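In response to a reviewer's request, we include the raw inputs and outputs for one of the modeled complexes. The two entities were modeled together in a single run.
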Amino acid sequence: MKTKIFRFIICTSLMFVFSCEKELLTHADYSEYTFSSLDEKGGLWKPVLLSAANQIVIPAPKDVTSVEYQAELRNVKLAMSSLSSKQREAIEYWTNNPILRWNEIALELAAKYNLIPQPNPDGTYTLPDAANPSKYPLFPYAHPPYTCRALAYLSVAQFDGLISAWNYKYQFNRKAPYDVDNSIVPAYSKTTLPAYPADGAVVAMASRDILIAMFPLEKDYLIAKANENMSCLTWAGVNVQSDVDAGAIIGTEVAKIALQRAGNDGMRRAQAAKPISDSIKTAAVKRFGWQWDNQEVPVRGVGLTPLFGKVRMWNVPTVEEVRPPAPPAPGSAEFQTAANELQEIANNMTPEKRKIANWWSDGLNTYTPPGHWNRFAKDFMIKYKFNPLRSARTFAYMNMAIMDAGISCWDAKYYYHYPRPIQTIPGFKTIIGTPNFPAYTSGHSTFSAAAAEVLSYIFPNEAQQCQAWAREAAESRIYGGIHYRFDAEVGLTQGKNVAVYSVNKAKQDGAE
Amino acid sequence: MVYLAILICGVGALRAQTPTDDLMMPKQDICIALAYENGTWDEYWEGTMLRSNANIGTFTRTAIMPMLAYGITDKINFFAGLPYIQTEATGGQLKGVSGIQDLSLALKAELLNQQAGPGKLAFLTTVGFSTPASNYLSDYLPFSIGFGARELSLRGILQYRFDNGIYARGAAAHLWRAQTKVERDSYYNNGYYYSEWMDVPNALNYNAAVGVWMFNNSLKLEANYMGLRSTSGDDIRIYNSPQPTNKVEVDQVGFFAQYYFKSIKPLKGLGLLAYYSKMTNGRNMGKFENFGFGATYQFGFSKKQSTNEN
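The model returned the following structure tokens for the whole complex.
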């Protein structure tokens, strides 16, 4: 009797405890979908890096009546007739817009590598070494400047590659397998988009090679992902092998072109050595009479990427033209008002403010604020059923704007070298960690305003939401205790100003 | 470094009639208890590697633990506890937190208690349930005051007590933990997750104790061991913050003393307790050293003595 009662109690309690268990998603919850438009004129859009849509050359395809094509078609049908459940899962995972999946993979790698190096036993710090990536600390340390740059190159390569693909698709007009052979039922929605070259293969190869360069220790993982992505194109019945091979050529070549720019954009020098970092600090003291100092124990001798502000921008001619005015001097009345507000918030923390601070924190071990905005963009693309080309365009302009905003923000950070609240307010404690770089202006605010500006242009119906998010992201840093209000507000203006350059360029690219 | 509700109401304090011991109260008896506990560490296990972090320095956690026990019948007792916890660190600039942690409820049943050779053999079982009692953030480790999820526990307790007062006890429990809601909608846990919810690993919990009752069952002295093993979870990554998904393991040894005022009339029903414990081994957990003390007061409408004290 007693055991029965206990069994009953256990069963009902287990149900109560676990009745609300949530399924934990590891990727965006979407399936293949019918594109809202095909952008048939996409081959005429202006690429970012390519001089023209036909700069990368691919061979003319064989006709669908040729012996070679018919053999390829038979192979597609053979593969489709014996798909394993694992292959079916892969087809479902990749969908007909793998741009979204590759963006997601990039965000996952950003989070995985977003770990700050620990101190050595003697109190010094070792930095990641691109030449020896597997030696601790692993390369890269995917902090926000690193991640925003990786995302920009990824998106630009995808975008230029797809403009090139669209150009050839409508030049050669080779039909999709299911339009050649009615017996083929594709796994993805039928479109009238010509199949040669395969846009999926462009995306797979371009993404693979950019991400291998950015995350070299993930090479095997990325190669496997790209192979699976490309295999799915024939398994799904939307391409034959020669479509895929031609797409792979474009993807490979466009990645090379993008990586050539990346190799010379100044990022290599961004994590300056201590003497340079010290001279930057000295210059600020001379100019303004204040300086930022890292407050960790042991002290980090160099802030995060002091020369990221010198990295080559995408759409802004010079970083100086978007540099914000100087912040109020520490100790001034305006400064004191901002400092008092931080103490007031800390002493009267509310659940709402705490949640906002944490919600936007996007700190170590996460995909960073640029990653957060990529996630929003992805959700909008799914909602508005964007085709791969238009998705790539959105990511490209948004991530160029975000990276430009980051560069501008870092320029301000190290030009003004402004101390953080934990340095200026004695005994001040925060509810989120203070990053290893100067305060003014707020990176979150700048990144977010830039992203919101581009998304507002692309998705006018979401503009209000995006602007509200950007303001909340900016506010979150004040609630967290790591930024003064002027860091956040000026950062918002700065991010918006920077993004206008990208939006203006987008308006001229032929996509409207 | 996930804090363990079980450390508070089960293993550390309040040995007078807790869900993990052998003591039973007679029907309609009530016991109220209050204890204070202080735990500190200046090293923690990152995975299984013991390390320090100057930006935490010495970490301190203090708890005030009120608790209530009630004899539903002589063989079934009910427990409730509601700790208040405060955390802080001497290093770095992160703010400590304080608040009410989890409400825990338990039912303990004595299934066997009979003479066997030179002593008595007892077997008891406990079903426990706990749930966060405030909106504390579990995802603010190491400062979080709890793991922020509901827990169900099922425990078996076996004790042999010689007629001369010496005893040995062992207990094993399975702890089922639900998910904890955090204040972000994505996180890394050996792969990226798009959710506001984190899995808190289930765990196994072991206790062993040897002790003695002295002075006509007025004084109890005990040496004990507590082990905890998460059955899944990830390790803290290098120099990264812990999170509720971590795989937690603990080995802890301790000493416990309790005195009941039995013969002094005005103090009858009152008990005093003190304890000390130290972690010897762990994983993804601060290497705590704890001490605590408290008082219990038992009163009731029944004339019967607590069954195991007879």
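As requested, we also summarize the result in words. The helical segments of chain B are 5-12. Chain B touches chain A through 45 residues (CB under 8 Å).
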